[in-house]
Amino acid sequence: MVAAPPLFYLIPGLGADERVFQFLHLPGHSHVLKWLPPQTPAEALPHYAARLAEAVPPGQPCWLVGVSFGGVLALEVAQVRPLARVVLISSFAGPRELPWLGRLARATGLYRLLPPQVLPLLPGLANWFFGVKTARDRQLLGQILRDTDPVFTRWAIASLLQWRGRPDTAAIRIHGTHDRLLPNGAAHSQYRLPGGHLIIISRAADISRILTQLGAPETA
């Protein structure tokens, strides 16, 4: 009996879209789960994830591949799609993995004072935080940041920092060894790749190879 080809559902990071996956080469079928507008500024992540999960057939085994904030959503979608297996790329599983600045923002609510539009206005700072080095990657990051919806970004940052986490949900983790946004993630990852937060772009060939191996049918 021929095994079914793997099925990947790809969830981009905060404010990003399918452009971050353009350099991946995966077997089987791949679908990008596009962001939905939050129903309210206070919509809870599990409720949002349940709406996002409507694009994933409940009885179908698949892979949920989430990048950064998309990994958070992948863990939440998996709660209502138990046949899905989760891969986190440049992401985290709970607030204990946040860097000290993220934990401070979570505890004090300081993130509410930061305008979502600040990073597109400071490209040098954005490039440093995301660890991009090539002209191609800088251009792509700049385009994504300029296209980001500030309303969605404000909701996403608040939801992310208030998230309780899903540390008990099984996940394969891929992380950059020099990730400045989530520096603690590499210690919790099975796959550590040289690079920063945007290894989905800079290490797309390595990530394609890992996902291809994960999606290969198991042999008896």
From TrEMBL:
It comes from the Bacteria. Residues 26-206 form the AB hydrolase-1 domain. It holds the Pfam family Abhydrolase_6. This is AB hydrolase-1 domain-containing protein.
